[in-house]
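Researcher: I'd like a structural prediction for the single chain below. Treat it as a standalone chain; there are no partners to consider.
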Amino acid sequence: MKMNRSLQTLFGVAALLVGATAPAQDEGFAFPPARVEVAVAELREMAPVVEVPGTVVSKNDSRVAAEVQGVLVWLAEVGDAVAEGGTIARIDPRLMQVEVKRARASVGSLQADYDYRERQLVRTEELAAKNSASATLLDEAKALRDQAVHALADSRAQLERAEGDLKRTEIRAAFSGHVTERLASVGEFIDVGEDVIRLVDTRRIEISLPAPLALTPFVEAGQLLQVRNDGVEREHPIRTVVPVGDAVSRMVEIRLSADGGDWLVGSPVQVSLPSAETVSMVAVPRDALVERGGAAYIYKVMDDGTAKQVVADLQMIVGLWVGFSDGIEVGDKVIIRGAERLMDGQTIDVIQ
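Model: Treating it as a single chain, here is the predicted structure.
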């Protein structure tokens, strides 16, 4: 009994101390202004979507082959970045250098023969003009000169080919990209047309996805689609809808332009395809949605600088945008950052 009275005394003293130290909360207390970022509601064309898997592909993915025979003496390493026109492999050029020398010698010999035949023809024409040479001799001189012309042209073509083969011992990249695979090894004898290296363009990329034939009426070139992968979301335009469907899968291929993007070639992605006709509706960025207690809210910026909590009539979510049929009007400013801890009617400070 004494212990109970002692506890009551202690609790009473504690209550007095708390009452003495707690700050008085007057009726005019208000939360300080909250710093927020805002966006403007706008009218957008939106449609319900279905998720379709796609793959990031390169526009240029080549298995580069040799154009001349020879022993492979150098290859670029896997992972090397190569500029357009850069060397990616070398074939021993010694045999080609010999062929060039022989072709140049042949051109020189036939050039001399042509010059001689041309002078002979001039002399014969002068003699024929003085009736000192027969027509038969003149015709023979012309024929020999013409044969020399054709032989020289053929020899020059052989020289051009030999010089081209020598240049082709340096296997060069037809486009900028990265070496992804070595298909031959240094020291191997390479024949014409044999693959030596795989080169992939990592900047000029597209996103390829199969789409059900039933969705083709709702997609068209230039239309922006939402693409996602591991939390990263971007919008990419449709480059083309291939107008040929597969008879078995009932699918068509859609290609999205993604040049200059940061997607890795071969990455799987999810693409949102419209599944119905688009409709115009008021939309705000998805970041404006605030979920509390199983309900979703939007905070509008009022003219007096306060935030008003609105339970809007959510219609659809498409990518990074949310569409409403009621509660939000075009031009309304909505809070997209800092709304998580807001109270209805709280004063706000908008960050520009």
